[in-house]
Structure formats: C-alpha cells, structure tokens
Amino acid sequence: MQHDHARTIATELGVSHSQVGAVAALLDEGATVPFISRYRKEKTGSLDEVAITAIRDRMKQLTALDDRREAILSSLKERDLLTAKLTDTIEAAETMTALEDVYLPYRPKRRTRAMIAREKGLEPLADLLFAQDPSVDPAQAAAAFVSADKGVENEVDALAGARDILAERVSESTDARGEIRELFAKRGILHSSVVVGKEPEGATYRDYFDWEEPLAGAPSHRVLALLRAEREGIVRLSARPDEGAALAFLKRQFVQGGGPCAQQVSQAVEDGYERLMAPSIETEIRAQLKEKADREAVRVFADNVRQLLLAPPLGQKRVLAIDPGYRTGGKVVCLDAQGKLLTHDVIYATGSDAQRAEARRTLSELAKAYAVEAIAIGNGTASRETETFVRSIDFGRTIPVVLVNESGASVYSASDVARAELPDQDVTVRGAVSIGRRLVDPLAEFVKIDPKAIGVGQYQHDVDQNLLRQSLDDVVEHCVNAVGVEVNTASVPLLARVSGLGPKLAENVVEYRDEHGPFPRRTELRKVPRLGPKAFEQAAGFLRIRAGEDPLDGSAVHPERYDVVRRMAADLGCTVADLIRDADLRARIDLDRYVADDVGLPTLTDILAELAKPGRDPREAFEAFAFSDDVHEIGDLRAGMKLPGIVTNVVDFGAFIDVGVHQDGLVHVSQLADRFVEHPSKVVKVGQRVTVFVLEVDVERGRISLSLRKPHDATSASAKADPKRSQPRKGPAGR
Fold first, then answer.
1. Interstrand relation of 330-335 and 374-378 (parallel, antiparallel or unpaired)
2. What percent of the chain is helix, strand and coil (3-state, nearest 5)?
3. pLDDT tens digits for 671-707?
4. Count of CB atoms within 10 A of residue 681's CB?
5. Closest by Cα among 580, 575, 602 to 591
6. What sections of 441-491 are H helices per DSSP?
7. Would you say residue 242 lies in a domain?
8. Same domain (yes/no): 582, 671
9. Residues 6 or more apart whose Cβ sits within 8 Å of residue 13
10. Residues near 253 by beta carbon (within 8 Å), at least 6 away in sequence
11. Disulfide check for 333: which of 374, 432, 458, 646 has CB 3.0–4.6 Å away?
12. Region of residue 409 (left: phi > 0; alpha: psi -120 to 50; beta: else)
C-alpha cells in the first residue's frame, strides 16, 4: 500500500512521487526529520523540515486508514457478509469518513427499532412501501403482517415497524449522508444557549449565553471556548443546518409522488433524519470542528514555543540572578559563565530602609566578588520594584539589568531534572538559577520543562493532547538541532533532544563525559555505551566540539563528509583550518569537482557555508530591553500612553503584551495593523519588542487594552497623560 500512499501524498503536497518515497524509506530506516532535511538533500530533492514532517504525518494517517480497512474486511469476512462488490467499495474508500459510511449498515450494533421490526417479519412491507406504487393502500398491505405471535398487534404497529426499517435505510445511505454532511459543513449554524440557572456560575462565558454563528467561519478559540462551556454544563450547544433544507433534500431523493405509500416514506425520512442521521452527522461535524480547532490552536502554540526557544541568548557570561518577592524577599544566586551555581543569598529590595541598605551592600559585594557581567531578574511578583532598586545601585561599572520571562520556573524547580542538577538546594534557589540560565541561553533552559508549562498558546488543556505533544516535540527537536549542541557542556535534557539520541543515550553521553573528561573529537562519541553507528550517524552533525582537535567538529559539517573537505584543502595545498580562516581560499573551490553519487551540490553548498561560519547560531543577537520608568503597576497606566513592550503570547484573537505592570495587556487583532490581518502571528511573534499605545484600562477587572496602531492623541509615558484630559477609549475586548 505504501507505493499508492506515496502517490497520494505527492499529489496532495505538490511534490514528486520519488521525493515522498525517499522520505518514507529514510523514516523507515530510523532517520529523524532534522537529519533528513539537513544531510539527505540529494535523496529528498532538498525538502525542508515542514514538508518532511507533513509527509511523515500523512503517511501515519493513511496507515491508520489501512489498518481500519483491514479490520473492517476481517469483521465482514468473519460474519460471512463480504462480497466482491463490497470488497471493491471498501478498497476504494479514500478517507476514514467514506470508509465508515460504507461499513455503517454492516456495523455490529445494539438492537435497534429497525432490527426489532425485521425480527417481526416487516421488511417485505417496508420494501412494498418504498416502491411507492400509488395503487397500493398501506393499511391494506399492512393487514397481511398483523400477527399476535410476532408482536404485531394491528396495521398501525405494522406500518410503524416498516417505517423504522426505512428510517434506518435513509440514515445509512452513503450518498444521502455525503450530501447532508456537506450541508452541515457549508450551512450549519453553531448555536449556544445558557442552561437555566447556570448564569451566575458561568459568568465567564456570558458572551455565549445566546450565541450563533456559521460553522464554517467559527474561529478555533471560540469553538474551544464553547466546547469547554458545554463540558462544564454552562451552555447547550448545537451544530446543525436549517432542518427544512435537509429534509427537502432527503425527500427529493427518497420520496416519489404524493400517494399513500409516498406519505409513509416521507414520515420515515423525517424520522430517519431527526432521530438517526442528524445526531450522527452532528457528532461527526463537531468532531471535525474540534479537530480543526485543535490543529489551529496547536499550530499557534507551537509557533509561540518556537519563538520563545529561539530567543536571543546573552551568551556565556557571569550572571547574578534574582527571583524577586515581597514578604519572603528575593532569592539571589551567582552563576559562572557555564551556568554553575557559585553562591546564593536573600535580599529585601522592597523592605524597610535598613533592609534595602543591606540588600544594596549584598548585591554590590556579590557583583564585585564574582565579576558579574549581567543581572537577570524574574518578571513575576515585585519584579519592577526590584529592577528599579537594582538600577539605582552604583556598581562602579555598567552591568546590564534584564527582566527575564520566568514562566515555568516553578515547574522546573520541583522537577526531577532540577533535583538532579541541584540536589542540595531548595526550590527557591533552583528557580533563581533557572532565571539566570534563561538569560544566558533560553533554549538550553527551556528544554528542561514540559513546553506546555511555558505559558504561551491558548486552550492547551482542551486540545488533543497527543497532537499537542507531537507538535511540541517536533518544535523542540527542530530548535535544538537548528542551533546545535555543545556536547561537552550540554545537560541531559538538552542532549536528549538531539537527533538520534533520546534520554537514555543522553545520560550515557554525560556519564561517559563525567568519567573520561571532555570529548576531544566527535569520533570519541562512538565509545559511549549503546551509542551505535545509527545513533552516531543521526546525532554527530548536530553535536559541537568547539576548540577541539578537529576544527570541523565545531561545525555542522557531518563527519561522513570530512574527507570531502580534506580533499578540498589538499587540492588547494592548505589545511582545513586555513580554509575556515581564509575566504579567498574558499572562493577558489570548484564544487562541481566534488560531486559524486552520494554527494551533490546541495550538500557541498551547505559545507561551503559552514566553512565560512562554523557552527553559526541562527538566533538573533541579544539586545537589552527596558520597560518605561514611569509605569510599574496597572494604576500607573492612562489612555493614550505610548509604551515599550514585549510580546508574551500570540493567540487567534490578538497578542498579549507585557508593558511592565505585572498584568499583560491585549492588542486585539483589529488593533495590530491598519490593514486586514489573517492571523496575529503574521504581524507579531513571541519575544518581539514593540511599541504600544494604551487604549483603555480597567483596574478593577485587571484588563488593559492596547494598540499597535498610533492613535491621534497618543502621548509618551514620560508625558504622564493627564487623566482628566485623556479619557479612556472604548476598545475591543478579547475573549
């Protein structure tokens, strides 16, 4: 079946059959998506990770379809129901929906009204009615089927049973179901109404107490919100088209003329639709609606996580990190350039004058003793007050002070990973360490926690958890391998995300490193227990050994291609190190000379680029950021203010922006740009620095409405807009 699948996927994705076949074969051999996209371009025609992932996922779907097809054929064969024609129809089904429609009449089911009617011998009567001969009197025909022994008391019972059989036939008609399903999809209406008495309990969902919109246009965030409200018993939800339109179609298809038998068939059609078909298809449509909403929500979530993981790193610097707080003070840690904990303390930056004086002395002494190069402050409780306090200290030199996203730090603090890394420290120290390390290298620290704990996205607990897990795993794997990992300093969680390794091999790498010291060359990885040739092939190109014995070990050039680079150097009469240092030498390389059966121009071009910038980091350069000095809490905000901010989350209906007041503001999608925006992610990304304008502030409800569009009367925060002259505007509220 895989050959057929390759053709199907090639048509759907607009790639060649051979490309799909090559990807499928590599995946079957155990190759990872990052490895295939980076090091097997000749085989795949240079397909990128997005295309390779799409092929992988679609292949899984089609395999699942095959599995279900085989199960159905087996079931029908066991029950002696399989015919040649039915086999052909089942084999021709191209989707799971089409396959289930074919199987529906034969599916084992609990006793239905139609089954009971057949047991009473009423199927011939149903056939007679369905023929709709205008000369036939239904009552007279039914009289022949009255039988006390069979439980048919009179003609009325007989006709009712016959209609039950017809209703089931109508409901199970493959053609009719297809047409009605399309009607649901195109003209269905999503409607919600509050459950009587649930108004106070469901105040959060009051917008949906009487809500209606076309199914086809319902955005994913609203679908998920409605489904959650229904699940919590707050609203009743329906997803159907106009009943009259559906019945009109079915009667055109099944009812012939207006004779007495036709009237019986008409009644059966109505019953079949209302009792059987409509509920069944509504369940299907809602499942499809949920799946579509899930995929959109997961896509947004994954994109946000990608941006957060690829945030610019400060780089290896000596850092003082503070996890701020009020009553219990702020936990302070000092880290060396490799992120190792050197010492820790507690300060009270928001306490009494004496406590603040002591905190000033403590920070000054720590900064001097440990030659601190940067200060990281968690952006949670008391962060702005702590930031202002730290900036007021004269350290005798300039030390950048950076607010760091601390989402998920508490999750890390209580995790097995944190206990293994810092076994002798409590959760407060671990949290502060995580904040400091996030400044140095966000990717290396964020991989230690479940991506769902990072705090971006929407309705993450409502979506398909398997889909979410796969998508987030793909994102983390992509980010880690795109950046590359320094094998001699990486943690187990980071190494576990390297192509071809995984948790157990990552542990083995670290244990071997701890026992034998730093790896001098990539080839030494072959000595790690259980790290065989296949794992080495998949992982080696993404592992870095900077300043090692072989300069190529610090690059993304795969060891399987080292000989090609050495031939290039030999042909030019120089060393590999010379090639890396000298652009003029690289310019003299004729790549065509090195093309071979297993090495083409795509790989050779990548190699040349790597020689120019070995192990280059694709992340942007770090730039310090500071919030406005004039705002620290929501009460400081006024409509019209112009403020710097950082995008913390992107969702379907807009973007949330941190402006430094402990409460993110919302830029509704309508306020992102002066033009129509297909999705907020087309305009902003998580971690992006932006300038926003305050539209409205609701202190009581903790809501801040912002805009990226400059209002006519906008003022800067430093101007401290007069609240008497700058009245709040009405702005769109996000749901």
1. unpaired
2. 55, 10, 35
3. 998 888 788 888 999 989 999 999 999 988 889 999 9
4. 18
5. 602
6. 442-446, 465-483
7. no
8. no
9. 20, 51, 54, 55, 58
10. 173, 175, 176, 179
11. 432
12. alpha
Q: Which domain holds residue 694?
A: 634-719
Residues 332 and 439 in one domain: yes
Give the pTM.
0.83
Task: Report the domain count for the chain.
Answer: 4
User: Cβ of 41: how many Cβ atoms within 10 Å?
Assistant: 18
596-615 as b/e: b if 16+ CB within 10 A? eeebbeebbebbbebbeebb
User: Residues 278, 281, 283, 287: is their CA dihedral positive or negative?
Assistant: negative
Burial track 646-656 (b if 16+ CB lie within 10 A, e otherwise): bbbbbbbbbbb
In a domain, 543, yes or no: yes
- Size (the chain), residues: 735
Residue 284, CA distances (Å) to 132, 185, 276, 279, 376 in order: 32, 10, 13, 9, 51
CATH code for the domain of 582 = 1.10.150.310
Check which CATH number belongs to the domain holding 391 and give it.
3.30.420.140
Nearest to 492 by CA among 418, 414, 413, 408: 418
Residue 443 belongs to some domain of the structure:
yes
What is the SS3 string spanning 151-200?
CECCHHHHHHHHHHHHHHHHHHCHHHHHHHHHHHHHHCEEEEEECCCCCC
Average pLDDT on 384-405 reads 92
Say if 733 falls within a structural domain.
Answer: no
User: For residue 667, what are the β-bridge partners?
Assistant: 655, 706
Q: How far is CA 320 from the centre of its chain?
A: 33
Per-residue pLDDT at 627 exceeds 70: yes
Q: Which helix (H) or strand (E) holds 224?
A: helix 220-231
